[in-house]
């Protein structure tokens, strides 16, 4: 029989039996106090031995239950608005907790502990005027002890204990749990500092990888690198870069990584109120845990918890960086939001540097073209012109060779005209890319994923017929079609043909891959292609290729274009 059993069983009888009984009673009290102090010491050591915040919070609740001999214990973390941000309970069977449903919101007696910032001890909490009652399936609770956990003078959360084993909680119980709460505050603060240091280290590593990748190549998929970095940094199930023409207009999923990425990338989705739309407006946020926001991705990807921040490059808000987690994963918290915001800020600078370097390289190419044009005009044309004059003089002196020489002179004149046209093109080419170059840029970017260089054919006046919003559509169509081939076809050869004339614009992509059996799996990926074609009165279709694989054809008529 231990000291507590002796105290409960014999102490009342001994106290009534004179001096000898009183002496024995004091001994029992000392033994009991020593046992409880040892329990507190053990609990403090256990709590202080962990640096993972989630583990620390649960261990605090478990050890508090042991120290106070309570049947149930819980730790509530207080949010900025005074409500319970997190509620960790121990002692209650999982199936009972599932029947009860939603966790407490911090009202009634639980809220009173937070408001008073002092311990509250009740013999029967059900009779307290502040009690708000229990939900269905909740086990009975009577004795209650609530103790705040304070960090640097501010209440971080509260310990809640109910149903003490030997009647109501005592002064000693309150003192022991208060002492444990002080140790818990130190442990929580240490765990938070450790978590901040770990996040900073992780942020530095991911940003280093992103910056290195962005500056390694001019043709790298910038948004793809960012999305991968977001997924790694936030341990998200899904990450995406979302853009829009204007606030309130449709959202375009430019780039996606993670679960369901192939189902949503390249899609146009309606503008709905939530974390993503708020980020597009310039405010970083997390979707409320109550789930009042509409799922931003039409439930195609895990989105129980959604976090999004603005992506700003060179002072312009160009879109939003977002990440999601499934219902089985912990929801995003304020630490995740701060981490993603820091990432987006630094990543925006890296993107700006990458784009500036690409601009400098393009300016260098333009300067080279201008220098080439000058050299052609000042040297090559003049020499050809002088040669032509010399041949004409020779023909005058030797009439019998006149016919042959005139043919050579005509060839020289034609060459001079071609060079002049080339000079005109070099001198008048703008810094913006022509349609041909935009399409070739997409092919170059995606060739790494294909493992080979596709055969590209342009037919007709591409730059004349494809411009404006139609040009943006054609670029998006080519990107999505080739991306589908990369992900599903397992092809060894890919051909691309872009045709533009007065009859319309046609983009055809063929491969020698596994064929339509695999292509059927991309039905959701081709829905956007059909939608783009339908919006312009055209059509999109998949047919078997002549040599196996799939032939994708996207065609739209040309309406209202200023064509030659």
Write up what this structure looks like:
By secondary structure, the protein is an alpha+beta fold. The chain is 52% helix and 20% strand. It contains 16 helices and 16 strands. The protein has helices spanning 3-15, 18-48, 53-67, 94-100, 108-116, 171-216, 222-234, 261-264, 275-280, 334-397, 402-428, 435-450, 462-465, 468-489, 516-519, 523-535, and strands spanning 70-78, 84-90, 120-122, 144-151, 154-164, 238-243, 251-258, 268-269, 285-286, 305-313, 316-325, 455-460, 494-501, 504-511, 539-544, 550-556. The strands form three sheets. It has a six-stranded antiparallel β-sheet. A five-stranded antiparallel β-sheet has the order 2-1-5-4-3, sandwiched between helices. The longest helix is centred in the middle third of the chain and has 64 residues, at 334-397.
Largest sheet: 6 strands, antiparallel
The first-to-last residue Cα distance is: 104 Å
Which shape, going by the Cα principal axes? elongated
User: Approximately what portion of the residues adopt beta-strand conformation?
Assistant: 15-25%
Cα radius of gyration in angstroms: 37 Å
Q: Strand arrangement, largest sheet?
A: 8-7-6-11-10-9
* Total DSSP helices: 16
Q: Which percent range fits the helix content?
A: 40-55%
Structural class: alpha+beta
What's the average pLDDT? 76
The stretches of 5 or more residues where confidence is low (pLDDT under 50) are: 1-11, 13-32
How many runs of DSSP E, i.e. beta strands? 16
């Amino acid at each position: 029989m231990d000291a507590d059993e002796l105290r409960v069983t014999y102490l009342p009888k001994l106290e009534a039996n004179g001096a000898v009984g009183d002496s024995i009673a004091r001994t029992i009290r000392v033994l009991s106090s020593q046992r409880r102090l040892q329990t507190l010491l053990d609990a403090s050591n256990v709590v202080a031995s962990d640096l993972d915040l989630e583990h620390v919070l649960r261990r605090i609740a478990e050890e508090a239950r042991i120290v106070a001999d309570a049947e149930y214990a819980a730790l509530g973390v207080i949010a900025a608005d005074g409500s319970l941000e997190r509620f960790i309970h121990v002692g209650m069977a999982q199936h009972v907790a599932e029947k009860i449903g939603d966790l407490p919101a911090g009202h009634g007696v639980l809220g009173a502990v937070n408001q008073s910032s002092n311990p509250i001890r009740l013999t029967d909490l059900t009779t307290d005027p502040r009690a708000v009652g229990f939900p269905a399936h909740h086990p009975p609770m009577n004795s209650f002890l609530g103790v705040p956990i304070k960090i640097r003078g501010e209440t971080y959360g509260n310990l809640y204990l109910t149903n003490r084993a030997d009647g109501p909680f005592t002064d000693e119980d309150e003192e022991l749990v208060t002492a444990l709460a002080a140790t818990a505050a130190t442990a929580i603060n240490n765990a938070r500092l450790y978590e901040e240091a770990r996040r900073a280290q992780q942020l530095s590593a991911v940003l280093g990888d992103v910056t290195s990748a962005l500056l390694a190549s001019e043709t790298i998929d910038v948004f793809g690198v960012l999305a991968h970095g977001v997924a790694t940094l936030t341990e998200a199930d899904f990450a995406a870069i979302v853009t829009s023409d204007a606030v309130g207009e449709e959202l375009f999923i430019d780039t996606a990584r993670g679960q369901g990425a192939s189902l949503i990338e390249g899609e146009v989705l309606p503008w709905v109120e939530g974390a993503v739309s708020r980020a597009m407006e310039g405010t970083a946020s997390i979707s409320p845990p109550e789930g009042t926001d509409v799922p931003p991705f039409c439930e195609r990807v895990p989105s129980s918890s959604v976090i999004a921040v603005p992506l700003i490059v060179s002072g312009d808000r160009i879109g939003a960086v977002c990440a999601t987690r499934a219902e089985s994963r912990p929801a995003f918290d304020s630490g995740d939001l701060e981490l993603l915001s820091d990432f987006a800020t630094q990543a925006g600078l890296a993107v700006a540097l990458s784009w500036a370097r690409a601009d400098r390289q393009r300016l260098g190419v333009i300067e080279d073209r201008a220098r080439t044009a000058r050299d052609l005009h000042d040297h090559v044309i003049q020499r050809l012109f002088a040669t032509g004059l010399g041949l004409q003089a020779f023909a005058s002196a030797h009439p019998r060779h006149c016919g042959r020489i005139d043919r050579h002179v005509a060839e020289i004149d034609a060459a001079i005209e071609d060079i002049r046209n080339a000079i005109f093109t070099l001198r008048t080419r703008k810094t913006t890319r022509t349609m041909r170059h935009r399409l070739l840029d997409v092919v170059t970017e995606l060739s790494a994923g294909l493992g080979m260089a596709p055969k590209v054919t342009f037919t007709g006046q591409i730059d004349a017929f494809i411009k404006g919003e139609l040009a943006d559509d054609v670029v998006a169509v080519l990107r999505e079609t080739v991306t589908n081939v990369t992900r599903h076809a397992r092809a060894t050869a890919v051909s691309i043909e872009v045709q533009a004339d007065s009859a319309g614009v046609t983009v055809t992509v063929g491969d020698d891959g596994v064929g339509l059996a695999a292509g059927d799996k991309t039905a959701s990926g081709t829905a956007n292609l059909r939608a783009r074609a339908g919006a312009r009165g055209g059509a999109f279709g998949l047919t078997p290729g002549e040599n196996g694989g799939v032939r994708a054809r996207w065609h739209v008529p040309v309406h209202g274009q200023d064509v030659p």
